[in-house]
């Protein structure tokens, strides 16, 4: 190979300079590019408890990333290495979880336990036990476990260390990339944008494995903050959302002009410009169906603005935080497919509204549950009808059949379901869920 002088090694790579905050296009100055790229991953720190081996590998990755400005190939290497650290993190976490002992359930025999001092021990043992058709005991469950990435992923989910339905689909994609890195079958080049995303996803995954959700995370977000809000609408179809505080602070003289508006008080994700968690469907709010993207709780209404203010001043409800992942929805199919419903609301339906086929689905967002059920009616789409993870989307099928069967499937996951009976309130205009009875 050609020997390059130090000055050349120290010079910025033209390809790297082509990436700037606005994507490809303008060329950045080397100084700016170095700062800009490092800032992209500066805030993804690991939580305190993370195993030393995983932590060292991750910090090395962040160090090397900075050199991408000098050598574009570094971005591909960073991406590849991140995927190997994915597996290392699972192994390290497994060793902490098992505390030096792993237990297998052997067919027609008592459980057997083995002492393990390294992950190599685990892998050797898992391999032997697989051949005896034995399964790894994980809490109250048993799973097939071969010690490879596939088995580790199943273990982490069964042990409850990883959560979320959309994140599961992302783990699946990561695992496929990981297998590509371990067994490369062709040429691939990563960009700084791709490398940043992989490093950020990896940081979220490691932190979640060690019990720490990521504030504003993409894969394992921390619970979202909800505030008290007032939704209002008039007969002309205009809708508004405002913080409850604005109503209390306003002059009551303004109430007169608002006489034509109906108001409801809810607990909802506040609208924050630029936030990735704005509820695009807030104006679809309906007490019967889950037509908003994030959980929105009905508190009061409908009524006039003055009545809403009186209620707010008297009750002083407060915000909270909510985990929107892994929710359970019931989808009713009666003449047509209806929007997803909370099990607690479905449990309170009168007998004559329990007709049709019902599907119990676990998903992060109602639209995910709906799209899955709609797709499962057509075999060619690849959506499954059998209980378990859907191979075509991020939904998990819990069960389907009659109303009672679907509600039982929901209760098997959630525990006993408390009936919630709410007054029938919905905002009139609808873009995303127009088809409601
Ligand atoms: Zn599906």
Biggest sheet architecture:
5 strands, antiparallel
Shape, principal axes of CA atoms: globular
Quaternary organisation of the protein chains: single chain
Radius of gyration: 26 Å
Task: Provide a count of the helices.
Answer: 14
Give the names of the bound compounds: zinc ion
Determine the strand fraction and express it as a percent band.
15-25%
Number of strands: 16
**Low-pLDDT stretches:** none
Give the helix proportion (percent range).
25-40%
Going by helix content, strand content and strand pairing, the class is alpha+beta
Give average pLDDT, whole number: 91
State the distance separating the first and last CA atoms: 72 Å
Give a nutshell description of this structure.
By secondary structure, this protein is an alpha+beta fold. The chain contains 14 helices and 16 strands. It folds into 4 domains: 6-94 and 163-209, no CATH class; 98-158, no CATH class; 224-322, no CATH class; 327-414, no CATH class.
Would you mind describing this structure in some detail?
With 437 residues, this protein is α+β, with helices and mostly antiparallel strands. It has four domains: 136 residues, no CATH class; 61 residues, no CATH class; 99 residues, no CATH class; 88 residues, no CATH class. Helix content is 37%, strand content 18%. The strands form four sheets. Strands 7, 8, 9, 10 and 11 form a five-stranded antiparallel β-sheet that branches. The chain has a five-stranded antiparallel β-sheet with strand order 13-12-14-16-15, sandwiched between helices. It has a four-stranded antiparallel β-sheet with strand order 4-3-5-6. A hairpin with a 1-residue loop joins strand 12 and strand 13. Helix 5 packs parallel to helix 9. The radius of gyration is 26 Å and the shape is globular. The termini are far apart. The relative contact order is 0.09. The model has no long low-confidence stretch (mean pLDDT 91). The structure holds zinc ion.
